[in-house]
Amino acid sequence: MRARRLIAAASVAALGVLSLAACGKSAPNVAAYVGDATYSVDRVDAIYDDLQAKYGEAVRQEAGQAGATPEPEQLRSAVTRQDVVNLLVSLELGKRVAASKNLQVPDEVTPQQLEQNLRVPASTEYAKLWGEWIDLLQVLNQQLPPAELSDDSMMAVYQAIAKTGAIQGGLSVADVRRAFGDGGFVRAATALSTALEDEAGRADVSINPRYRAVGVPSVVSTGQSLVFYSLPYINEEGPVTDISTPEPATSSAAPEAEGTAS
Q1: d(C-alpha 88, C-alpha 111), whole Å
Q2: What is the DSSP string of 63-130?
Q3: What span, in angstroms and rounded, lies between the C-alpha atoms of 120 and 101?
Q4: Which residue of 139, 232, 242, 253 has the fewest CB atoms within a 10 Å radius of its CB?
């Protein structure tokens, strides 16, 4: 995949938010508070369990058609409960930002459009929430002025994408800058991060400690497929400080000048 072809369908951000215990909101059955909106642990579990059940059934059916029997681990989606919390919190904050700017969000992206690349059945609530989230992000990305492109923000986005295996790991800052070109989707990511961070402060966001490392979901297009990823926690000082360096690719080939990545 040529890294220059990473064109943002939706950018990425992450939120510095308070834990429940830090501000008196400590109900153990609540996953997150966003202003007057409350997301229960039960709802997170319901979205997650629905996803896993439908994913497992889809894998069984596909394997059965091929005369195969899937291994138990193949019946589990890579989606986590943290991913569910990330999506719920980000959607609520994004809606608040859009409302404050009087932005209209069209209903364009369907779960069916995301099913293959998201690797989640379209009938799940998780896939439906992703469709809603991408609709919202497309509007916000068009309206928020792009931020400056720093090495830290660029490398944070790069490392998050590298963890998915969609781009070669272990590249230097100079290599990544060449690969990302003008870094438009990183600029959008930083602008979105700032907007959601500010809204989180206004909305008095509080997160259950078990979901403390809230990251905002993201998706980029390679031109042939979509890559879904998320950055972990970004503190108020700015760039990610909690992303481990990805393992170098097994190939010893150096990236091409245009930024060819595996």
Answers
A1: 16
A2: HHHTT----GGGGS-S--HHHHHHHHHHHHHHHHHHHHTT--------HHHHHHHHTS-TTSHHHHHH
A3: 32
A4: 253
Burial class of 117 by CB neighbour count within 10 A (0 to 12, 13 to 18, 19+): middle
CB 219 within 8 A of CB 227: yes
| Alpha-helical runs (H) found in the chain | 41-65, 81-100, 111-118, 125-143, 151-162, 173-180, 184-203
Say which range, 9-23, 126-140, 192-206, 231-245, has the weakest mean pLDDT.
Answer: 231-245
Residue 207 main-chain phi, psi, to 5 deg? -120, 135
How far, in Å, CA of 117 to CA of 228, rounded?
8
Strands 18-19 and 206-207: parallel
H or E segment to which residue 19 belongs: strand 18-19
Q: How far apart are CA 109 and CA 135, in angstroms?
A: 6
Q: Give the dihedral sign, CA 174/231/73/124.
A: negative
Backbone angles phi, psi at 210, to 5 degrees: -70, -15
Q: How far is CA 164 from CA 10, 78, 112, 202, 227, in A?
A: 16, 11, 22, 33, 8
Mean pLDDT for all residues in the chain: 79
Q: How far is Cα 152 from Cα 110, in angstroms, rounded to an integer?
A: 34
Task: Give φ, ψ of 255 to 5 degrees.
Answer: -65, 145
Tell the burial category of 104 from Cβ atoms under 10 Å away from its Cβ (0-12, 13-18, 19+): exposed
Residue 97 one-letter amino acid = V
- Of 9 and 105, more confident: 105
